[in-house]
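Hi W., the cytidine-5'-monophosphate complex you wanted:
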Amino acid sequence: MNPVSVRVPAKVNLQLGVGPLRDDGYHDLVNVFHAVSLFDEVTAEPADELRITVEAAPGSRVAIGGVPTGDGNLAARAARLVAERLGAAPRVALRIRKAIPVAGGMAGGSADAAAALLACARLWDDPAAPALAPADLLNLGARLGSDVPFALLGGTAVGTGRGERLTAATVHGTFHWVFATADGGLSTPAVYAECDRIRAARGGGVPEPRESGALMAALAAGDAEALSAALTNDLQPAALALRPSLRGVLDAGRDLGALGALVSGSGPTCAFLAADAAGAAGLADALDRAGVAAQTLTAHGPVPGATVI
Ligand code: C5P
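Structure:
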């Protein structure tokens, strides 16, 4: 059996509407996912036992220190899930090459899990009569994490429920982004918990989130300025409370000409929308000179989800 390599994108949330805390510990979301051109690569190769290695992608300065290489890595759980479904033994070596910031609010761990699902299915499933259809992989993905199905799908999509029920969105054109990473990640559960705490202290109920019509119209029109005005993230106050320095990063991006600025998902990566590719490159340079970010990265979206290469 030949090795299988899968390329998988990062995401930024264009709208992250967070409803009240549910009994199961999750929140109902309206989550507009947008896949951007920062890619991890996962290679699956037959081996004696399940093994994971993690390295920075060539040319990437992503800090991989905190990434688990045992069962704590979501990609390992993905491999076990596919093996169990196919009645195979999870004898696979997964090599993860990371360019997506770790614990950065860009779903890098979920992306690796999605890539591992696809790579292991390709390795062990029967190509003539596949036991696992794309819809089955999406379902397995939802068992692994709320953001995993989107990493399989890619593009731009509205996620409801925990974020795992996806509907593709109509998008025209390409949007150009700058991402400012921070040293040290933020824990997603901690950011959700802080969001609940802030809301409880404020009092008054939490409404169910609603999809933004202005955002969907901006996407359909390919209008970066209108999209910038419609970007929202209900987790942003919590991320800023846990990491106050992010306020200065967002302000710097706006001062340096970003059309729009927000914390990506649960943070701490900050996302800036530019008018075009040249605008994004100029903004990234200016943010680098300002020295407010660990690293700046440029990317465009939407891009396809996990793809065998
Ligand atoms: O689904 P996943 O394991 O990626 O979620 C990580 C954590 O994020 C959950 O344990 C929960 O604390 C929080 N979360 C949430 N509501 C969602 C998605 C995630 O509260 N819809």
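The pocket of cytidine-5'-monophosphate is lined by residues 25-27, 29, 145-147, 162-163, 188-189, 192 (CB under 6 Å).

W.
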